[in-house]
Specification:
By secondary structure, the chain is an alpha+beta fold. About 40% of the residues lie in helices and about 5% in strands. The chain has a five-stranded antiparallel sheet. The radius of gyration is 22 Å and the shape is elongated.
Amino acid sequence: MGDGWTMRKMWVGAGVAVALGMGFVMLLVVGVYLVAGNVAGGAGGGAKRLAKGSVPAAYQPIVQKWGNLCPAINPALLAAQLYQESGFNPRARSAAAAQGIAQFIPGTWATHGIDGDGDGDRDVWDPADAIPSAASYDCSLASYVKDVPGDPTENMLASYNAGAYPVIKYQGVPPYKETQNYVRVITTLEKSFAAPTGRVDPSEQAAGAIAYAQKKLGTPYLWGGTGTAEQGGRFDCSGLTRAAYESVGIELPRVANDQYNAGPHPGREELLPGDLVFFSDDLTNSRAIRHVGIYVGGGYMIDAPRTGAVIRFDPIDTPDYFGATRVTEDGAKALPTTV
């Protein structure tokens, strides 16, 4: 294909009046902040349902059902635990002998594994048993610490990490850095798996991320590219989005399907500049996401499309549009380094 500047002129010639100038992008984002300044964010209280495609379709009904087993858990929280433990991989096995999608160690499974699908056996490798067992175990832990003051969900998560005795001893989340971090990580990731019940706050770093991506317009695509000097400053799709947010102090995972969990998920009609937008051939499973771009407004994104193309503006309203993520610093920090 032609060089990058030719590509940019083609877009201008085609009349694509979205974010073609830095000033336009900045005004657009600042305007969004002014409009959204008083809009409440987050998923809010009440019963939580899973965000679209956030859990693989084969497991979504199980997570939705068993995530309501007791008041201390909800489907989004249970999904966050499964993602953190195994990335929804039913064959996952850790160096500590933890097994399956919920990463039970054999001793814990022997005590807390249940026959979730009623087929007469308890199989740690079968998500139909392991996911209900994870929910049941959470609820058992919650019952152990039900008389401890404070948030019952946080006390349950602390018990999951450190055991019930320290939670009872300290009358809440114990002063262990690892345990406090686990509670923070799961409750933050929960927001990524919950379907938002209201508008979510715009990212303060969005304008900077867009500005970074704009400077890369016309750069040839490189599969596996992360923008290093050795790679000639070239990127693939998730390499570009990662670098754009890294430029404003937010570290995203390397691959697109993990970047999807870096914050809550606004609907198509709620998109703001700076949101990450995702594409997949399987619209029921975020683990199958294969492409990501940075939304700039007007139905367009900046993305690194494919081999032979350059970083450019592309429309987002295509049949493979999966959804979006409003990146948050806490959400990015909560993501596991490997899943």
